[in-house]
Amino acid sequence: MAAGPRTPPRFSATFDPATLAEIRRAAATGIYDIRGAGTKRKLPHFDDLLFLGASISRYPLEGYRERCGTDVLLGTRFAKQPIALRIPITIAGMSFGSLSAQAKEALGRGASVAGTSTTTGDGGMTDEERTHSRTLVYQVLPSRYGMNPDDLRRADAVEVVVGQGAKPGGGGMLLGQKVSERVAGMRTLPAGIDQRSACRHPDWTGPDDLRIKIEELREITDWQKPIYVKVGASRPYYDTALAVKSGADVVVIDGMQGGTAATQDVFIEHVGIPTLAAIRPAVRALEELGMHRKVQLIISGGVRCGADVAKALALGADAVSIGTAALVALGDNDPALEAEYRALGTTAGAYDDWHEGRDPAGITTQDPALAVRLDPVLAGRRLANYLAVMTLEAQAIARACGKSHLHTLEPEDLVALTIEAAAMAGVKLAGTEWIPGQV
Amino acid sequence: MSGAPRVVDLEQASVRELNQALHALTPDSNETFWRVCNPRGRHNLAVGLDAAVTVEIAGHAGYYCAGMNKQAKVIVHGNAGVGVAENMMSGLVHVRGDASQSAGATARGGILLIDGNAAARCAISLKGADIVVKGSVGHMSAFMAQAGTLVVLGDAGDGLGDSLYEAHLYVCGAVAGLGADCIEKPLDDVHRTELQAKLTQAGLAGQVDPGSFRLYGSARQLYHFDVDHADAY
Residues A135-178: pLDDT tens digits? Predict the structure, then answer.
C-alpha cells in the first residue's frame, strides 16, 4: 500500500500536555503538588468588563485639574477609631515566615508612603512590621500563632480570618525548610517541621459564636479598633450577611485568584469562585441589610492595575487588597533573575514554588543569604510607585466617567464583553440591554 | 489583696463598664480585689486584663471568660462557658465548677485550674500554659497542642492529643482513645518532677500521687509529610 499523507500528531484537549505531566509526576512521587500563588486557569475576570466613559448624556472631569478623591474610611460602624486611608488599595495578609523580614519591611515602607495599610499573617506580628507600617491590620487566624493581646492593642485594626480565596476551607501551610528558629519561636513549634495550620478556629463555630468572639476582641481593645472578617469567596452573599450579623465593621472577600504561600494545587484550582463572581452577591447582601457603605467591603484576588481597582469599586466595593501584585512590585519573578529561575527548573513569571524557600528575589524565603538580596528601602519605593500608578489609573477612568471620587463609580458605568462576565458582574452585555441571570 | 472588694453588679453595670474599669487599672492601683455579682452567664467577663488583681465572679460565666488574661487571678464561682481563659498569657484562672468546650484554647502561659469537668477540646492548640482539670475532659482534648501541660485527674475522652506537637498530657484515669500521632510515653523522673510541680501550683501537692498518672506525648511521625502515613490523617 502506498504511503499517503499521515495524520499529524494531535494532543487531546482533555489529556493535554500539562495534565499528562501531572499524572506522571503524581505516579512518580505519590504526593500531590504543593505550590504558592493563586489559580492559573483562565477565568472570567475584570478584563471582561469595560467602562463606557462619558458621552452626550454624561460629561467627564478634566484630568490633572478637577479633583477625583481616592480616600476611604474603614471601620465606621462600631470602631471608635476607624482607619483613614489615602487610597483604596490595601496590602493583604502575608506572614513573616512565608515572607522574609526584608519583604515585610518593604511592604510596610511602600504602603506607608502610599498612605495605605499592610496586614500581618499566620505567624504573628513582628516589631519590624509594626515599626514600618503606619497602619497595620492584625490577623486573628485559626492557628493563633503568636496571638498576643499586646499586639491586638498596638494594631490599628483586627482581621478575623475565616478563609482565603486560594483555599476556602483550608489552613495555612509552611514547610520545614522555611520554619527557621525565629519563625518556629514565634509560632511555638519545633524548628524545621512541616507546619500545617488549623483550618477552623479553636474556640468558635458558626455566626452566633463569631458574634461573641468579635465582641471579645472589641472588649479587649476597648471598642477602639475596626474589626474585619475575611472569607474566601465561596458563598459571598451568605458569608457577607453573616459577617454583618456577627458585628463586623469590614467584610473582606478574597476570590480564587488570590494567592497563598503554599497549598495543594488541586485546592487552588478547584475550590472557591472567581473574584468577579463574588462582588455583586456581597454588595447585594449589604444593600438588603441597609449596610452598604456602612459596613465596608474589601475585594481581593487578582487585582493588578488601576482598571481592576476602578471596576471593583464600580461594582460596589469600598476598597481592594493586593498580595501577589505587591510581591511582583517588590521584585518577585523578575526576568533579571532568569538564570536563577532556570536553575530551579522554572522561568521568570512562572515561579510559584514559594513554599521551598529558595526564592532568588529574597522575598518568599527565610534563607538569610537570599533574604539579604532584597533591599527593603528600594523595594518599598517600587511598591509605593506601583500603588501610585494604580491610583492614577483608577482616577483617570473615574474622571472619564465624570466621577469626582472613586466611590461614585457605579455598575452602570460598566459593560461586559462576555455573557459569563455580564451575568457574574450584573452589568449589561456590551451593545445590548441584556444582563444575563436577571429577570 | 486586702480590704473590701470593689463590687460590680452586672444587674446595674454593663460588661463594657466592667472591662473598661479593669483595663483602666494602673500598676499602683489599690483596687486589687474585685467582685462581680450577678454574672448570669454573660459573655466576655474580665477579658484582656493586664494587672495583678484578683477578680471573683460570683456565679456562672459565659463565653471567653478571662480571655487573653495577663497577670490577673480570675476565679469563677460557678461554671464557665466556651473558651474560658482562651489565649491566656499569664496569671491564674480558677473555675470552681465545670468548663465548656475549648477551655484554655491556645493559652500561652499561666495556669487554668478547673475543679469540675471540662468538655470537648480542652487545651486545643495549647501553646505553653498549664491546665489542671480535677474532673474529666471531653473528646479531642489537646488537639494540635503545641506546648505546655494538660493534667487530668479524671478520665479523657476519645481522640486525646490528636495531631499533638510538644505538649505533655498527664491523665490519672482512663483514656477512651488516643488521636493521630499521640502515644503513651514512659513517666520518667523528669516528667514526674514536672507533674509534681504542676500539681503543687494547683494546690494539689500531697493529694494526688504523681506515680498514678500516665504520660502522653507526640510520636512525631507526622512532623514531616510522608505519603506512607497518609492513612493517619
Answer: 999 999 999 999 999 999 999 999 999 999 999 998 877 878 77
Question: Could you tell me the domains of chain B?
Answer: 6-232 (2.160.20.60)
Helices (H) then strands (E): counts for chain B: 2, 11
Put the strands of the sheet holding A414-416 in their side by side order. A49-51, A414-416, A428-429
pLDDT band at A377 (very low <50, low <70, confident <90, very high): very high
pLDDT of the residue at A195: 81
- How much is the pLDDT for B231? 66
Is position A1 within any domain? Answer: no
Residue A28 counted as domain residue: no
pLDDT at residue A63 greater than cutoff 90: no
pTM reported for the whole predicted model: 0.96
Strand pairing category for B73-76 and B54-57: parallel
Pick from A151, A178, A188 the residue to mutate for testing the B interface (most B CBs within 10 Å): A188
**Closest Cβ–Cβ partner in A149, A188, A193 for B127:** A188
**Mutation site, B22, B223, B229, B233, interface A, largest A CB count within 10 A:** B223
Q: Quote the number of domains for chain A.
A: 1
- Whether residues A203 and B43 touch (CB distance < 8 A) is answered with no
A250 has which bridge partners? A228, A296
**CA atoms within 13 A of residue A264's CA, in its CB half-sphere:** 13
Q: How far is A204 from chain B (nearest CA, A)?
A: 8
Partner residue facing B23 (CB), from A188, A203, A222: A222
- ipTM of this predicted complex? 0.96
A49 is written with which cell numbers?
A: 468588563
- Inter-chain contact A147–B87, Cβ cutoff 8 Å? yes
Under DSSP, the state recorded for A310 is H
CB contact under 8 A, B146 and A215: no
**H or E element, residue A183:** helix A181-187
Question: Of B97, B85, B91, whose CA–CA distance to B122 is shortest?
Answer: B85
Contact: B223, A190; criterion CB under 8 Å = yes
CA atoms of A306 and A303, how far apart (whole Å): 8
Residue given cell 473558651 in the structure block: B83
b/e code B104-140 from CB counts within 10 Å (16+ = b): bbbbbbbbbbbbbbbbbbbbbbbbbbbbbbbbbbbbb
Tens-digit pLDDT profile for residues A76-126: 999 999 999 999 999 999 999 999 999 999 999 999 999 999 999 998 999
User: Which of B44, B50, B102 lies closest to A215 in CB terms?
Assistant: B44
Within-domain flag for A320: yes
Residue A118: which region, alpha, beta or left (left: phi > 0; alpha: psi -120 to 50)? Answer: beta
CATH of the domain at A319: 3.20.20.70
